[in-house]
Fold:
Amino acid sequence: MSDASTLRPLRASSVTEWDQQADVVVAGYGIAGVCAAIEAARAGADVLILERTGGWGGAAAMAGGFIYLGGGTPLQQALGFEDTPENMETFLLAALGPGVDKAKIADYARGSVEHYNWLVANGVPFREAFWGEPGWEPPHDEGLMYSGGENAAPFNAIAKPAPRGHVPQMADKKIGRKSGGYMLMKPLAETAESLGVRVEYDLRLGRLIVDDDDRVVGVIAKRYGKEVAIRADRGLVLATGSFAYHQQMIEGYAPRLIGRPAAAIEEHDGIGIRVAQALGAELAHMDATEVAFFGDPQLVARGILVNGRGQRFIAEDTYPGRIGQATLIQQENQAFLVIDEASYEAGLATETSTPFFRQPPTWAAETVAELEADMGLPTLALQATVDCYNLHAADGKDPLLGKKPEWVRPLQGSLAAFDMRGFTAGFTLGGLRTDLDSRVLHVSGEPIPGLFAAGRCTSGLCAGGYVSGASLGDGSFYGRRAGVAAAKN
Amino acid sequence: MSDASTLRPLRASSVTEWDQQADVVVAGYGIAGVCAAIEAARAGADVLILERTGGWGGAAAMAGGFIYLGGGTPLQQALGFEDTPENMETFLLAALGPGVDKAKIADYARGSVEHYNWLVANGVPFREAFWGEPGWEPPHDEGLMYSGGENAAPFNAIAKPAPRGHVPQMADKKIGRKSGGYMLMKPLAETAESLGVRVEYDLRLGRLIVDDDDRVVGVIAKRYGKEVAIRADRGLVLATGSFAYHQQMIEGYAPRLIGRPAAAIEEHDGIGIRVAQALGAELAHMDATEVAFFGDPQLVARGILVNGRGQRFIAEDTYPGRIGQATLIQQENQAFLVIDEASYEAGLATETSTPFFRQPPTWAAETVAELEADMGLPTLALQATVDCYNLHAADGKDPLLGKKPEWVRPLQGSLAAFDMRGFTAGFTLGGLRTDLDSRVLHVSGEPIPGLFAAGRCTSGLCAGGYVSGASLGDGSFYGRRAGVAAAKN
Structure:
């Protein structure tokens, strides 16, 4: 079956028989889909979820589970962190741009506490514990962590630092550790099904069905190649995830991710984006990407990270995803970690949830000059960097990049360096342009009647930057909005 | 009139009367449009150009006029430069990516000599003279120049350097200097009109008209608010330029250009892209941008360019557009030029076509340490950079970035620095995805029947990188293809 027959909309008048029908049809049973289904059902709609795989979860169930929330959530308050919606908004505007959807950021920051409470009311557990060490995720079941560099330069001078990475409590390790993402999805899926939401598995989203006024009234889905016509009386919600696994879209929109998809699932083939494009949907920020960096944050914070020219380029104690973006986009994917023996040992002695980031050093040397030569850098390239760093580090300062004093120490004695070139991978953040009610916007700026979307098939909070929890965050938040709006449609 | 009524396609069955008709209708009378019109007319079609302003030219007529051509053009040969299509292709693949349309690059490199000859045959004059100095444009009417960093690091080690910036000879300065772009457009417009191409001025492109099979059969255009229905029997060619002046598209697709459009005209409002999106057209590389850097290349090559941390980041003798991209995208738009008095005087003494780039230094000092402090850089930040540079420059080398020996000299004596933060501006390179026949591709991958496009409303040769002449180059090359394909349709 060609892409064309999958993508071009079908006129409702040519559908002779509808195989299924619901008030609201949701395509994709990940975080955005489940939240849409719950809210649509609560608003009185008969809801049908179409899921391509054999079970609920999507990429969400495999994720670490961060949901980016703040503005003074009960969890933040219980753990002694002050935050306000305005403070959260200030940070997000600085960290996620340039070009963010300002209305969406303001809306999300203002609705964040209510959204936290909604998640808890729907069974998502958060343990009242804070993890304050550098890292990608908490090592145990701590519920709160910095997940976007809020407490690092340059953002700690722009907005009052508050941790906003909320992690659902993981199941007891004795009975098999489940990720935070699984523990987010499970109660929500149970809630949806308790509300009478129906689910059809092994059904792939295909072309959309429109009436003579170009209103979306259904969808053709496929089960093992057989087409099924499904009627959506009030609305269709697209919640089908990113385009990280659609090769042509990656090449055409986000080419820096060629060959390096991560934290996505192969079902993320952009289909939700493409069927909406076929109706004239507008896109946004298609080049934006989350970028993971596979260096141990406990070691990175204690050393200096240099690019292919031996120059520092980022405060090493910031959010690892920021390091990933800076390395991939600004440093041609070239990074080396230089650390002295004492700091290396100190870092190794820490507890971490990500031991697979640990590897032996690539080079070891007694002097910077020797290390520089071993790394193939021009004479003085690394020495000059270390001289400047050490001069200020002796006073506990980092005027060049603003690493916090607690991580600043002159490099001395035996040194090691890790070759971290190409140590990045990520997923796409761009997609359909939607409004605050998750209506899919036509290129004209008007909503496409009957069509809603949320999650990573949309452009959400992130334009250029990223924070861990933004995807499950805007996916769940605007998934809910999609469900409400579709049910009322 | 809302954007919606401008953008949503109109069914042909609802058009009661056609005001105009042609075999091939071309929207936009810039470089892509004029080339499409010429080839369509030569293929026997009756051609009508719709132009929004009162005259031909578009952005092309105001441009410097570079057309990127190579592979052994007669001009390259006459001036003693060897080049082959394969060599040109190798360079373009390295310089314009990642994510380039490889088929288009191969096609363009192979067709480049023929395209040069076609331009000459249609009256475009090129003077047999080479300009080899750093700069944006030749200062006089030289016809050939390096325009993409072919002879600078890293590309001079990847492909054999050959200059490919072909500039139409400017008119006699005595009778008023006309830009190379004007001298490109003038003979082509005269050729088009000699072939009987009709032109309607002051007509703005509006919504497309499609038949019941979604084939494009015409367009609604507007003259002073009044709608005019124009029938295109064989095809419609979109040649309406970039989206540099559509604020929402810039924010959503290329936000680094917010507030800094350049080398575009206000008519570049993305209309051609949007009317095609409304039919389900696929896009590509919407974040890609040309970026000008407003520093005098004669001075830049002689000094060192440092970022906001006092670190070098690019070979200073490369194509200024590469410096612009690196500064804006990789260095947060922070750049400073540091130069010593002797090199400054030497640079000032050169001839340049761009005297408006010249400005007095922001700081002057007797030592690097003093300059560093004046610039507000941390102690040793700039000194370390200069120490490393000078060490190798004493041997005429630049192992860090590969600046060519002819420009490498230790910085010594009195020093000056120029604050070049924010000294960038540019235009957009992304747009409609088209095939080698300039057919606009639907998101399904199939061509949209009856619809063709070329120039900056399409994604052409450039993905991430840029070379001067790529826009007039692919605009003219694929404009021709569009004309041929539409006429045969």
Summary: The domain at 1-294+425-488 of chain A is CATH 3.50.50.60 (FAD/NAD(P)-binding domain). The longest strand of chain A covers residues 226-238. Residues 102-121 of chain A form the longest helix (20 residues).
